[in-house]
Amino acid sequence: MTDSTQNPLSLAGQVALVTGGGTGIGLGIAKVFATQGATVVISGRREDVLQKAVAELGPQVHYRVHDVTDYAQSEPLISSIEAEHGPLTTLVNNAGNLVKKATEDLTEEELLSVLDVHLVGAFSLSKYAARRMMEHGSGNIIFTASMASLFGIPYVAAYAAAKSAHLGMIRTMSTEWASKGIRINAVAPGWILTDLSRSSLDTDPERKRKILSRTPMHCFGDPEDIGWAVAFLASPAAKFITGVCLPVDGGASIGF
Question: Which of 36, 60, 174, 230 is deepest in the core (most CB within 10 A)?
Fold first, then answer.
């Protein structure tokens, strides 16, 4: 890691893996990490999306095609990154999926499909990343949690279950691994404008009004807002912070 006496917010010398890094919030995180000097590897299932992101973000960003539910490939993924770029210093568990429907209509298979990605996939990568980080004596693992980790949101029971489970996971991991030099944290994004959310909100003005009415800052966030928060948690400036979930939400989680 960088010398904190020079710039404690710098990520120079870091090697970061951002899952689901080709679009949306993941892309925003990768962009910020690259601007702060990190070598970044983004992963996802769609190679064309990853290639487009790398072309946009520049030579410090690389990609790996990877499905987080293919647990047998978790350790090989980390090994290949370290072989090419050096020790992994930060893992950002950002990959996700969503099933939106009334809870009484949610199938067990749909519940498991969401838990597989958000929870089990993140657990698998975290476990193997932590083993490598223990060898180096330091590292960061950061989860993209959610407003659904903090309060009730209708029609996303599977997603809410997974994102709530993230909070328990980071608390346990942080207590087990802090003494080994590994910090575990999360960010909980509020309503962030991505290509997907923008198209959805443009066709649902009432939902847009409702979101803004309960957000004290009365605006939406940008993917880079999440990127800067994650970059802070990964930086030497946050060296005494572990086991926390940081809302980045314009005040939505405390608004009324």
Answer: 230
Q: Is the pTM of this model over 0.90?
A: yes
Buried b (16+ CB within 10 A) or exposed e, 24-36: bbbbbbbbbbbbb
User: Does 159 qualify as catalytic in the annotation?
Assistant: yes
Convert the pLDDT of each residue in 139-194 to its tens digit. Answer: 999 999 999 999 998 999 999 999 999 999 999 999 999 999 999 999 999 999 98
pLDDT over 70, % of the chain: 98
Q: Annotate 124-137 with b (16+ C-beta within 10 A) or e (fewer).
A: bbbebbbebbeeee
**Res 10: pLDDT:** 96
244-250-252 Cα angle (round to 5): 80
Please state the CATH superfamily assignment of the domain spanning residues 15-193+224-247 in this structure: NAD(P)-binding Rossmann-like Domain (3.40.50.720)
95 closest CA partner among 43, 132, 139: 43
pLDDT band for 5, please (50, 70, 90 cuts): low
Strand-pair category, 61-65 with 245-248: unpaired
Q: How many Cα atoms within 13 Å fall on the side-chain side of residue 50? A: 19
Instruction: Say how far apart CA 3 and CA 169 lie, in whole Å.
Output: 30
